[in-house]
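Render this sequence as a predicted structure.
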Amino acid sequence: MSGQNDRTESSKPSEQTAAQAVPPPEGGISAVIPAYNSEAFIRRAIDSVLAQTLPPCEIIVVDDGSTDGTRQAVQPYGNRIRYIRQNNQGASAARNTGIQAASGEWIAFLDADDEWLPDRLALQSRLLEQYPVLNWVTGNFYRCRCRRGHRRTPDLPGHRRDALLRLLNGRPVFDSYFSAHQHSAMGCTDTMLIRREILLKAGLFLAGQKRINDVDLWLRIAYLRQPLGYVFEPLAVYHLDTEASILKTHRQPDHIDQFLRRHFQLAEQAEMLELFHPCAAAMLGWWLGQRLREGDGKQVRFLLNKYRSLFSASSYRKLYLSSFCPRTAALYNHIKEYWRKRRENQTE
């Protein structure tokens, strides 16, 4: 659970939204929350949706075969939520169930261990009102270190926000998800608001995929050549260090390998291979960094050699040499990144 300071901050609507009422997009918004053994935090997620300054037309909780007290935790909400239970099939299948059951024309996702900030839907609805061409919008969010005093850091800090606004000429719309990815402004699943028709056209989440299942769908929407709206104000809190986090499991190289091979093919079919290439490099670079922290130098070398074309010669050499002393290299990179961020924060 968040600390007292977090609750106080989350409960205050932004001045921007409080100053002007915002209508929901035509067709309404359905909130979809997949849950598996979420007894400890599902109430926090639901309460954050109920606290929206612009409420959704419905809240759908899809219980993916929980074996704890998730059902009992949501029962007190009564008809304020739609509770659907299914056999355990994974988060992707649970989200798909929610999408298919939704009555709203727009779908807003929230993981059961995270929470929305009060103006999440209002700010995004305002953006849709201003730019009716958009079929999906995302936004900034806080990462909360649950085991480090619930310390929150924005995904897109102030100095980067200002630079991006200048780059976009003050228009908070990227021409594609690829452009947003290049500038690390993709938000997260908790900040995605997408027209249901587009989700169906893209093929929904890939059931059974163990990792990167959200980005897999976002890329398939990107292949449909959809511009992406972005709200620079934080919209959600992404809680790290929670039990049974997917980041702690499914670390085998075949997860990223199958993902990349599949999307190189899909990007080529969509004639967007050149746009996908830097995304692939960034995703693989992140994956390799995680494996260095875990000391899995063998996996790093395997993936580096297989996808050598994604890296410059200097980056390849640096990563390859790091793979022989992975934990030391990861610690050095962590310290270097810490001081870089500290310098950036001091300049804001």
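Summary. The chain has two domains: 4-248, 253-347. Residues 41 and 113 are 6 Å apart (CA to CA).
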